[in-house]
Amino acid sequence: xxxxxxxxxxxxxxxxxxxxxxxxxxxxxxxxxxxxxxxxxxxxxxxxxxxxxxxxxxxxxxxxxxxxxxxxxxxxxxxxxxxxxxxxxxxxxxxxxxxxxxxxxxxxxxxxxxxxxxxxxxxxxxxxxxxxxxxxxxxxxxxxxxxxxxxxxxxxxxxxxxxxxxxxxxxxxxxxxxxxxxxxxxxxxxxxxxxxxxxxxxxxxxxxxxxxxxxxxxxxxxxxxxxxxxxxxxxxxxxxxxxxxxxxxxxxxxxxxxxxxx
Amino acid sequence: xxxxxxxxxxxxxxxxxxxxxxxxxxxxxxxxxxxxxxxxxxxxxxxxxxxxxxxxxxxxxxxxxxxxxxxxxxxxxxxxxxxxxxxxxxxxxxxxxxxxxxxxxxxxxxxxxxxxxxxxxxxxxxxxxxxxxxxxxxxxxxxxxxxxxxxxxxxxxxxxxxxxxxxxxxxxxxxxxxxxxxxxxxxxxxxxxxxxxxxxxxxxxxxxxxxxxxxxxxxxxxxxxxxxxxxxxxxxxxxxxxxxxxxxxxxxxxxxxxxxxxxxxxxxxxxxxxxxxxxxxxxxxxxxxxxxxxxxxxxxxxxxxxxxxxxxxxxxxxxxxxxxxxxxxxxxxxxxxxxxxxxxxxxxxxxxxxxxxxxxxxxxxxxxxxxxxxxxxxxx
Lengths: 262, 380
Hints:
The structure holds 2 protein chains of 2 kinds. Helix content of chain A is 28%, strand content 25%. Chain A has helices at 36-52, 67-76, 94-108, 128-136, 189-197, 245-258; strands at residues 2-6, 9-11, 17-18, 25-26, 32-34, 55-61, 80-84, 113-117, 139-150, 153-160, 163-169, 173-177, 202-203. Chain A has a 9-stranded mixed sheet with strand order 11-10-9-12-8-1-6-7-13, with helices on both faces. A two-stranded antiparallel sheet of chain A has the order 2-5. Chain A has a two-stranded antiparallel sheet with strand order 3-4. In chain A, helix 2 runs antiparallel to helix 5 (189-197) and helix 3 crosses helix 4. Chain A is globular. The mean pLDDT of chain A is 90. In chain B, a hairpin with a 2-residue loop joins strand 9 (267-268) and strand 10. In chain B, helix 1 (7-34) packs antiparallel against helix 2. Chain B is an alpha+beta fold. Chain B is built from 10 helices and 10 strands. Chain B has a 4-stranded mixed sheet with strand order 1-4-5-8. Chain B has a 4-stranded antiparallel sheet with strand order 2-3-7-6, with helices on one face. The chains are: A alpha/beta, B alpha+beta. Chains A and B meet through helix 5 of A and helix 1 and helix 2 of B.
């Protein structure tokens, strides 16, 4: 089974602070990490490889420093890593990014399974990976907990609001993965040593002679950011206290009635 | 920290720290109370490859230097030195088989350990601690075999080990020169693992008696020359002294980390403890001893990487570092005050854990004899 995992390098949001005047993220001095959901996607890929064999390729689009997350993925067990990087790709929004990544996946493929995190913790859009499926014409499954193969069919369990949905579909399939899907493994010492010296090839604009230049970079991005701001907190929470659950429930009903919700 | 770390060392340290903080640390207090480390906790270390760090790549290891290996064990010991020593002991046993044995013996031993098994080193006896020459266990030649009899005590990994290096008298009349070393499968008939020692510290480390009753091993299981066991044990101890010292540095660093954090939080007379000069002096002295210890360990490791036997340096390192560790951990408890004496806080355990470092791998008094003996020869 050939698997590709799309990985994004993001600022560690647990370390991030907001500029109180400009209301923007202070990115300076914030460490960069592998997007945590992408780590879950990588773990899903490695588990599929453990179960069915094949290889796991990781790709990331970004500046040279994004190599760090590819190396980390290789230290955890990914076989190959590719950095998609070019000035022409700079400023891409989720539409352009997903288009460029789909081109890279076609170039490196074919792949049976394409994986990504359910969203990145910096942009939080959750659009890029699902859009890749649209560009590739692959089946798209979001919020996947796990997947297995039975008689050449893919059986996936999806986490949905109502519970768990079990879906049967065919290859190729793109899945986005959540935190609940698994616990990512640690690197091993030997893979760590290998990852620090292995080659991470670049894929640049020149590697895609047939790419549609109207769909890449800032100019190919339909998204326009009008403003960014920190939303004002308007409502405050209330903690209902009491000696027993029934007493607390009575108090809650009373408050809801008071607020004319009931 | 004082050392200049390579990128590779930094990455490896960070990787081990993340695993130890997330997977081991939450269970240390409970395991310390029980005096037993669950196998599942060791599996994290095995999965990462912490049992094969310095072992050559052709034997399935990662071929790190002693220097880098020591840095990793220091990091592990910050979370729990008993956990770390389980791997260190296993590694020292395997390393010595590789150094002293034939290539076949090295491969045999490495193949047992590689999939995730522990090894042990059975030298000490109830009446032969710092004086191995007083050992009573015997190995008697019987055709192509040796028959082993005797009792070993305080054997680290005793009940966990799948394979061990054991020391027996092949010529009881010859004292130190009558000792030979053997590779022994831990499931060989006639081996009985005794009770797990209820220890003061390093309680995540398994320590038992091991009794040999007519245990038959092939003559080819002899490690090195007949009568060469004492020298082999001394070389092994040079290595293990340097490695226990690195763990004592880890314990001390943890003591300092906890102490500074507490001294900044804890307020008395309306100010944090760290604003009092007497507390500042204690913290500074702790930092001084830790830096000096770490540099000493690092230098000894690098000497070993260059092939030095470090007979004197290993003794100096182990003695200095373990003596420092007593003072540093005791002062950590002092800074925590009454809370430091409570098991609810992490520092009393550090004090318990580090006492044995003045005792094992040759008591510090014996180390001073060794150092003086070498000096006596050097100035001839």
